[in-house]
Each structure stands twice: as C-alpha cells, then as structure tokens.
Design brief:
By secondary structure, the chain is mainly α. It has helices at residues 3-6, 46-51, 61-66, 75-78; strands at 42-43, 72-73. 19% of the residues lie in helices and 4% in strands.
Length: 107
C-alpha cells in the first residue's frame, strides 16, 4: 500500500477511478527495490535474532509492539500514515538518538 505512492510511478491522487496527476518527487520516491532501505514483510522471530545478534529478542514487549500480523516488520511498524504523533517522516514515535531504531536494533 505504501509503495502505491512511494514507487515513483503511481500518482498520489490516483484513487476512486481517477488516474491522478500529482507525483511524489525527490527522496520521497523510494522505488520498488527496497534492498537499500529497511526490508519490509520480513518475519522477526527467534531464528532471525539468532542469526543477527544485533537484534533485540522478539519477546521484548517494545519489539512486539512494533510487529504486525505474523510477527512481520512492515512500513507501519515505524510509520504512522495518519501522522497522529505529528512527528516528521510520519514516524510512530520520536527517533531522537535513534530511539525508534533501537527498539529492535541493539547496536
């Protein structure tokens, strides 16, 4: 869903039968190849933590609060698309000192 606008191909006002004319530009366009960004739809489980000792355990309540269906990391693990928090980049919580990143990453 997020890539529907951030792929750089689909207009952000393309809905309800309209083809749309407004495109995202600049760093807002992340494309469809996320290998240089944070992976999404990845399962965050004990096996993953065992392979990367720089991750906090899935049993940590803070980690669990960010995981989505099937213990997956999704865009909405870190981003709140409705920006209820009022934070830049639609972040779910403040990232001062990498606080949001350090919820899962122990490095």
């Amino acid at each position: 869903m997020c890539l529907g606008c951030h792929d750089g191909v689909t207009a952000i006002d393309a809905f309800d039968g309209n083809s749309g004319t407004t495109m995202l530009a600049g760093s807002a366009v992340i494309g469809t190849d996320l290998r240089d960004d944070h992976p999404i739809s990845m399962v965050y489980d004990a096996q993953l933590v065992g392979m990367d000792r720089g991750l906090r355990p899935v049993s940590d309540p803070a980690v669990a609060s960010l995981l989505r269906e099937g213990n997956t990391v999704q865009c909405t693990s870190c981003h709140e698309p409705h920006n209820r928090s009022g934070l830049p980049h639609l972040l779910r919580t403040d990232n001062t000192g990498s606080a949001l990143c350090l919820t899962c990453h122990d490095k």
